[in-house]
Structures are given as C-alpha cells and as structure tokens.
Amino acid sequence: MLTPLQIAFLREELATAKNPLFFHDDDADGLCSFLLLYRIQREGRGFIFKYGPSLNAQHLRKVQELNPDKIFVLDIPLIEQEFIDQAKRPIFWIDHHQPVERSNVHYFNPRLKEPDAYVPTTMMAWQVSQRNEDLWIAAAGCLADWYVPDFLEEFIQKYPHLLSRKSDLPTMLYQEPIGTLVKVFFFLPKGPPSDVRNSLAVLSRLQHPDEILQQTTAQGKYLWKRFQDINQRYETLLKEARKEVGKGKLLLFAYSEQHWSFTANLANELGALYPEKIVIIARKKSGEWKCSLRAQVAIAPAVEKALVGVQGYGGGHPTACGAVIKEEDWEQFLQNFKREMKVK
C-alpha cells in the first residue's frame, strides 16, 4: 500500500500537471488505475501499453507527439532505463510486479518493502483518488486482479444490485453482476484502435455503472453494444476451451491469431471453473506463443525454471503468470514446465 506521504506526493503531482501522459497496461487493473487518476483532474491523455515486455525507447514517439509535462506509468512491469533517460520528464511509476532497480524515476511498488505483498495498481490509485463517485471503478479493478479491497463493504452498500454480499472471488466474479462490469473493463481495450479510443473516451465520462449495465444513457448503450460484440467472441473460445478438459492435472488450450486475445480472461475463468487444474491458455501470433497460466498452487518458480534455455520471457504472481515463447521453443517450454510441476 502507499504511505500517507506517498499519497500526498502523488496528489500534488497530479494537481499541478498541465498535460500528463498516462501509460497503462491493457488489462482491467491498468485501465481502472488510469481512469481513477485521470478523473481527478481530467487533464492529459492515456495510452494503452499492449506490446512487448517493457516500456522502451520505441514509446518515446508518443512522448514527442503529445509533449507531456509529466508521465505516469501504471501497472507496467518494466521500464527501460533508456526510456527514462530520454523522456526528460518527471516519471511516476506505480506498479505491483517484481521490483526492479531504475534511477531518476519516482517508483511506487509495495513489494520494495514487502516482497510478498500483493496490492493491485488500482488499489494504490484508489488511495490517491478517494472520489466516492468512482468507487465502482476501484472495486471492479481490484476484483479483476483477484484482490478483495478493504472498501468492498462500502461498495456493497452503495451498489447492492451489483454485489449482494462479500464472498469468495470466483463467486463474486462469475455469479454476481459485478463480474460483468469487470469483463467490460477487460474487453473495451480490445479491437480496432479507433474503436478502443472512442470507447475509453466515453468510459472516462460516465458517472454510474448502470449507464453500461442497464443502458440508461446513449453513451452506455454504445459501450454495451461493443461489449456484447466482444463478449460473443470470448464465449465462443470459452466453449471450445472447455472441450479440452480431461482427466489430467493440466488443462492446455491453444488458439491462433485469427481470434482476438483473451488468454488472461480464459485462464481466470477456467481456473475458477476447474480449480483442481493447472491452466495454460496460449495464443500463437507472429512466431510466438503468448500464454497465461493459472493454478491454486504456486507456479511462478516453475515458469521461471521452464524458461531456462528457452527463447522467451515471463513471470508474474505466485499463482498467476504470463509468458511469451518463440514458436520453435514452445514444446521445450511445455516439457520443462510439466517436469517442474510434475504433471503429464
């Protein structure tokens, strides 16, 4: 969690920013973090980070294009020192992945002091924001990252039609209406760039979740239609993935770039549906396999060891990881991972 001094510092930096640029991850945690901080002052621009393992020199083009006075980086695991040095602006990096050492950057990561801490970026953004009208965004972002926030009871009191009671995460995410809102935040950053930009611009102006879930405004109807179109693609893949469930401990589902990327969402839902399984969802694109792994046991050490001698990278949280593997080394990675997890 952020300390009171860190919260005050970030509030002051946001309040004095005239044209901030927000780089944020393309999942629900990254998007909700951006929305919470952007809606405090409604200044600046957001940019979705979609490709590659790190924010690097290639992304300086966006800095040159928008000429921000400050840069906020949210829920992105790595920033190359070259980006920091050449950006020549104050950078405020809020993240919760494995800490790294960088210079000349304001770095906020709870794992710097507590290596096993698990605090989504949304939770830290909420500490800074505290705008009661944005409580629904904060709740959705935290639950999306499998974290039960301390303000959940307050959320239930304010939005009982979205969440009837505090329960286990799979129940709240897949049996309560809040789960649909979580999927909205996951799915709207997908699709053609122009559609994504329009959707996020509309989303940044909404005042209530029912604008989407009950289509009470024209803006909400627009977002709901986009969500339904994307969700239909997702449900088709989920149905195909469930056909791969067998008696073994490992549930592996692979699909091609002909489909949109839903690896993390499929991994989360299949992990909830089949908690006894080790789930690997993999999508082949541009000569690489991009995968999400989930389990009820620690898998991060196995992923790290499986990457030894393999062209690829990956990592994440103890029971939820991601990895990108070169196509020619995919089978070796799988063999290594199965060996480490002692599964066939």
The N- and C-terminal alpha carbons lie at a distance of 39 Å
For the CA atoms, what is the radius of gyration? Answer: 20 Å
**Second rung of CATH, namely the architecture of the largest domain:** Alpha-Beta Complex
How does the overall form come out from the CA principal axes? globular
pLDDT averaged over residues: 95
Oligomer classification? single chain
What is the CATH C-level name of the largest domain?
Answer: Alpha Beta
Number of strands: 10
Q: Given the helix and strand composition, which structural class is it?
A: alpha/beta
Strand content: 15-25%
Remind me, CATH topology of the largest domain?
A: inorganic pyrophosphatase (n-terminal core)
Number of helices: 15
Spatial ordering of strands, largest sheet:
2-1-3-4-5
Overall structural domain count: 2
Biggest sheet features: 5 strands, parallel
Sequence-ordered SSE layout with sheet pairings:
Elements: H1 4-15, E1 21-25, H2 28-41, E2 45-49, H3 60-66, E3 71-74, H4 81-87, E4 91-94, E5 106-108, H5 121-129, H6 135-144, H7 152-158, H8 169-175, H9 178-187, H10 193-203, H11 210-213, H12 218-242, E6 250-256, H13 263-273, E7 278-285, E8 288-294, H14 300-306, E9 312-317, E10 320-326, H15 330-341
Helix pairs in contact: 2-5, 2-6, 2-9, 5-6, 6-9, 8-9, 14-15
